[in-house]
Amino acid sequence: MALDGERGKQEEEKKKKKKKKKRKKKEQGAQKSGSLFAAAMGENDAALRAGGRGLSGPWADSAGVRPRTSERHITVHKRLVLAFAVSLVALLAVTMLAVLLSLRFDECGASVPSGADGGPAGFPARGGNESLPGSARRNQHAGGDSSQPGAGAEATPETPSAQPPSAEERELGQPWTQLRLSGHLKPLHYNLMLTAFMENFTFSGEVNVEIACRNATRYVVLHASRVAVEKVQVAEDRVAGAVPVAGFFLYPQTQVLVVVLNRTLDAQRNYNLKIIYNALIENELLGFFRSSYVLHGERR
């Protein structure tokens, strides 16, 4: 009986020890699982702080920090607005510069005393045929030959110096009314001399033309516009002398100068035509014209 009692006590002690071991194992397992969960939570928090969007390990490192698309759009919009503003300012500056240049050019032209047509005083209207005053020409041709008939005088179909064509000549046709020049005369050589006067924007000219007469005619027709003709001379050679000039006139409709002779030019002979004239230096791209530009703030 005593042995049975001791064995029972030993078995109970063994059972108690086993229960204690099981409890310790459970407690140790609970502690390990708690520490693992806390470590995982710490890693997730660190990943979120680092911008890894909850990724851990190498995934968080590869994700990195990404800029927001809205900030990119704002930057692009700012640049576009700045470029538009700069282009608008440049356009306004160019427009103002063009206006200032045009005003200065008008002031330069307005500084010259104006005549009836807006040109220098004493000059003929554009397309007219009046002579310039002697002071404007600087007496370039004061010593010219005045013995030539019609020299230094203006002639129009209505004035006595230029006899109007007869009825027979009208029937044959007026060469100055044609759009193309007549083929009766052929120019062989031109010798031109020009003298410019920049103080009033005028010039004087003298041209000598060697012409060959193909068919007999008493009219010399050549292109001329916006000039004031002073003198016209026609000569065959030094031996034969001058050919009398009845008169001359401008025909604005076809922009020609008509020289009317007192006798007919002989065919198959050469003649020399001398014309002295003056005119305005034009503001437009026509004939002898002027232009200007600005360099370093100076108008030239």
UniProtKB/TrEMBL annotation:
One function term, GO molecular function aspect: zinc ion binding
Record domain Aminopeptidase N-like N-terminal: where: 186-299
Annotated region (Disordered), positions in chain: 1-37, 52-71, 116-173
SUPFAM superfamilies (alphabetical): Leukotriene A4 hydrolase N-terminal domain (SSF63737)
Basic and acidic residues bias (residue ranges): 1-14
Biased composition (Basic residues): 15-26
Keywords assigned: Aminopeptidase, Hydrolase, Membrane, Protease, Transmembrane, Transmembrane helix
GO biological process: peptide catabolic process; proteolysis
Annotated InterPro entries: Aminopeptidase_N-like_N, Aminopeptidase_N-like_N_sf, Peptidase_M1_aminopeptidases
TM region(s), chain numbering: 80-103
Position of the signal peptide: none
Gene Ontology cellular-component annotations: cytoplasm; extracellular space; membrane
Protein's recorded name: Aminopeptidase N-like N-terminal domain-containing protein
Organism: Cervus elaphus hippelaphus
